[in-house]
Structures are given as C-alpha cells and as structure tokens.
Input
Amino acid sequence: MLLAGGQGSRLGVLTSKVAKPAVSFGGKYRIIDFPLSNCINSGVDTVGVLTQYQPLRLNTHIGIGIPWDLDRNIGGVTVLPPYEKSTNSEWYTGTANAIYQNIDYMESFNPDYVLILSGDHIYKMDYEVMLDFHKQSKSECTIAVMPVPMEEAKRFGIMITDENRRITDFEEKPENPRSNLASMGIYIFNWKTLKDALIAMADQPGLDFGKHIIPYCHEKGAPLYAYEFNGYWKDVGTLHSYWEANMELIDIVPEFNLYEEYWKIYTKSEILPPQYFSRESSVEQSIIGEGSDIYGKVYNSVIGCGVTIGKNTVIRDSIIMNNSQIGENCEIYKSIIAENVRIEDGCKLGVGEEKPNETDPNIYNYGLVCIGEKSVIPKGITVGKNACIFGVTGSEDYKDSALESGKTLIKAGDEI
Output
C-alpha cells in the first residue's frame, strides 16, 4: 500500500497544483517512480496507490502501470482515491485512516503480509530482504529504521530496541533521544495484526501509524521488530533537500546512482526526440532530459525533458523541469524552475545578497530561487535569492525590473 496523497506543503509553489509524489525528479522521473520501482524490483506485484491531493498528474503518470510491469490480470497497480460511502464519507485524515478505508481492497487478495510505503522518498530498497527478516524474527509488525546522527534524532520517530532488534519502546520526536534508529515510515504487518488494529482504532481522529496503530500493537504485546537499512534514503520534503538530492545525482561518484543495471528505475516516458546541443553550447556535469534543445551553457544542473535553453544563457546549480523555456542572454543560479515555465530574454535569477524570505522563511531558504509551474517572467527581470514567483507576471509587477532577495510574487488567482 503506497501512500501518495500528501500535499507536500513544505515544497511551496512546486506542489500548489500537483501532489508531491508527482513532482519531477532527476530530469526524467517523478518521485513516486522510486518506491514503485522498488516494488517491482523486489517482486511485489500487487500495489494499491492511495491518492488524494491534486491527483490528476499522478493518476495520468501511473495509468494502468505499464512502465513498472504492473498491468496484470491479477494484482497489478490500483489507484485508490477516497470515495463516497453509504454511512459516512470522509477524506483520508491520516496515514492509517487511508489504509483503514481500503480494508476491502486488501481483503480481496487474502494477503499474509501487507507492506506500507510512503510515496515521497528517494531510495532503493529490496523489500524482500525486509520480509525475510520479518518472517525469521516471527514479528507481527516490522518497521524499517535508519541510523541518524544523534543530534538529528529529535526530528524523527525513534525506536529503542534490544540486542535482537525487538522494539522495546519508541518516542515521537523526543527532546532527549535514547537511540538513533529513526523510523523510515516503511512497515510490514501480518495482515491479521494490521486488520485488528485498524478496526480497533478506527474512531481515532487523524488515525496515524506512528501515533495510534504501532502503540496499539505494542500495548497488545505483539512482537515488533526494527529492520535496519543502511543505504541511501532521502526525504525530499523541503525545497533544500529536494535541490540537494537532485544535485547529488550529478556528483562525479553519485551516492545515489540512476545508472545501475541491476536495479533499474522505471518511469512513464514520453515519445520524445533526442537532445540537441548547438555548436555554441557547453554542458558540464549535468543531466539533460530527452527532447531538450541547448544553445547556452549548463553547469552542474538537472534539466528535464523538452526544455529549451537560449543562446548565451548560463545555468548553474539549478533544476529546470519539463517543457520550460529559457530565453537568450539569461543568467540562472541555484534556482528550481517548475514545469512549463517561460523565462524571457535577459533575465537574471539568484543574484545579489541573501535575505530571508518575507512570507515563508521556513520554505524559501538556503539562497534558492523557486518558480512555480506555468509561470512567466518577462524580459530583463532580475530576481534575488530566497525569492519565489508564481503566475503569469508582467513587467508592471516588478519595481525597477527587479524582485529583491526574500520577496514573494504570487499573482492573484494562483492560490497556494
């Protein structure tokens, strides 16, 4: 069961019109491709994808599951949105509530085990190895954990275990952590244990695994175990971690390798022509998606599919998503530009001294510029650091043809 209904509000304007798992990543992928590819590479061939917030692009992307070989007569992939019921109808109000509302779907397969995943993490993991651990330890609920630095542990749900990895206690974001094993939000349950817990706790508002289901199982004396994972795992929940994860793909020796033969990442690919690089273009240490036309210079950046970069334009340390058009003579530094954006000639992004963002300093920070999808920036505009633009803007929206560092410009009608 893949939880993909989250809004991802900490990604700011990137998720104003699209669910977080459907946000582009690494040039040609979307975030949900990673857990879905893990499923098929691990031999999991029955997947329910729970959607809720802005699901259109996600539903179109998943389709009937062909890219992941999940278009099957039995099992395969099923998209599970909230639906009208005869007694009470409600949105998914918490992670476990979403699973509870789909008990009938799971029951129809008569499973022995249910694997619960988040749709918004970047990692490669063989769930079969975790399932083997679950069976060997005679666990009823196994939680994937990852060692984190002790000073960061207070940001996570922390598991305290004995020498056999049996969970003796757990704490949600503790002030003084007693362990550094952080929950990754990946669970394997025996079906009977999960079903009993969901039914027993069904009336809890905002029914959640960490707050309700796991404490319930623990109190009932069910054996809970922690499965330690030591590979690459990134929660791309903030703009900075999203930018960082993309930049790590283009390291000389990437920590997370998209090019491994034995663990492929599958995605729905458009039918696009090859990339084109003009004689004047220059590209160093970058990912360039299919169908992109490069006439300028690109350094240390991730460029999506169908992107055009005009003559004498310089792009550095930036992410430009699918089908965006960058004009000529532009300078773009440390920017995240969403899909279908148009930046006209002579614009400069990410320049000047850094100031905190005036509306959402916790979202727009680390000197990044963020441009929401389908935005337009007219000719000759200068945009400072920690700035955010969303909507079709005209030159009259900018004082002295500039948007200072830390400013937010959102055109009316584009609600966040």
Observations:
- The mean pLDDT is 87.
- Residues 301 and 318 are 5 Å apart (CA to CA).
- The first strand starts at residue 2 and ends at 3.
- Helices lie at 33-41, 56-62, 95-100, 103-107, 127-136, 191-200, 209-219, 239-248.
